[in-house]
Amino acid sequence: MTLDLVALSPVERQHFLQAAIAPRPICFASTIDAEGRVNLSPFSFFNLFSTNPPILIFSPSRRVRDNTTKHSWHNVLEIPEVVINIVDYPMVQQASLASCDYPKEVNEFVKAGFTAEPATLVRPPMVKESKVKIECRVLETKVLGETGGAGNLVICEALRMHIDPAILDDEKKHIDQRRLQLVARLGGDWYCRVTPENLFAVEKPNTRLGIGMDALPDPIRHSKTLSGNHLGQLANVHELPSVDPSFEDERLRSIFQYYSVSPDEMEKELHTYAAQLLDAGKVKEAWQVLLALS
Ligand SMILES: Cc1cc2nc3c(=O)[nH]c(=O)nc-3n(C[C@H](O)[C@H](O)[C@H](O)COP(=O)(O)O)c2cc1C
Fold first, then answer.
1. How much distance in Å is there from the Cα of 61 to the middle of ligand 1?
2. How far apart are CA 170 and CA 149, in angstroms?
3. Is 99 touching ligand 1 by the criterion CB < 6 Å?
4. Is 185 close to ligand 1, i.e. is its CB under 6 Å away?
5. Is residue 82 within a helix (H) or strand (E), and if so which, with residue range?
């Protein structure tokens, strides 16, 4: 299926883009108008774009259904300050409730049951329940269009972060990604949730180059058993490994004994074993298993 975005209706365009450009982190933005009325709304058109200077951007868009603009947008134009509160799993339903189109005079802190806590540098209050709150000043705004669905960028400089000590690592120095149960928005009503079980690490050497897929020996590169992820792990070593004579492995030995009469079967077994080792993050061992055939 190939889509020409200009030919789609705004609703269809929104559907396809939001389902594919996902998951998106959620900025729970607290803003205030010139009369001091507070607004609290979630925005998933949001991300970090620079750390030096620290810049966060979110977009309260024009509504697709009636082309109206949002109170959060009006507020940052009046008072260019915002607190970006990070949404985690324990608060996701309340954050969603805050997205209702309440009239301007209605405070979503009250409607959604959050506690307003004074910020230290800016006027909008922070969400006490949020594990991470970032006080920001609005540097610039940018209107992206005049019709329904058009974004309005709010470019913020992050000034001060407040972090719940409960999400810090044991040394109390950094955020432990396993302790912050982040949620993110996908297409339609779908969200996803970070849990220790669904987190995984991908090793990325910053300075040393991986050998690359094109440097993998042909039988490995064209394996019917190893997946793209497996090959990616194998090709991320800094130099092509060689056979390590001290490598001892019981299962490798039995594969050799059992399949010695059938080279094709043996290759399949070795690749299956290597795939399992790679799934367990054992790249060195997987290489030794694969090299055993050479
Ligand atoms: C998780 C979530 C993410 C949302 N992301 C956006 C967004 O990025 N941009 C947007 O315009 N509206 C977004 N919405 C809808 C707004 O939150 C909603 O229109 C907003 O609360 C309007 O409030 P306001 O007029 O008081 O600013 C989102 C809603 C939810 C529940």
1. 8
2. 44
3. yes
4. yes
5. strand 81-86
- Please count the CA atoms within 13 angstroms of the CA of 39 that sit on its side-chain side: 28
Q: In ligand 1, which atom is closest to the CA atom of 108? A: 26
Cβ of residue 133 lying under 6 Å from some atom of ligand 1: no
Which amino acid, residue 179?
A: R
Residue 270: which region, alpha, beta or left (left: phi > 0; alpha: psi -120 to 50)?
alpha
Cα–chain center distance at 137: 24
Residue 96 in contact with ligand 1 by CB distance below 6 A: yes
Give the number of the atom of ligand 1 that is nearest the alpha carbon of residue 43: 5
Single out the residue of 16, 10, 67, 76 nearest to residue 43, CA to CA.
Answer: 76
Tokens of 273: 């074993």
Helix axes 263-279, 283-291, angle to 10 degrees: 170
pLDDT digits (tens, 9 = 90+) for 123-180: 999 999 999 999 999 999 999 999 999 999 999 999 999 999 999 999 999 999 999 9
pLDDT digits (tens, 9 = 90+) for 42-75: 999 999 999 999 999 999 999 999 999 999 999 9
Distance (Å, whole) CA 79 – CA 76: 5
Q: What are phi and psi of 292, to 5 degrees?
A: -60, -25
Ligand 1 centroid to residue 66 C-alpha, Å: 14
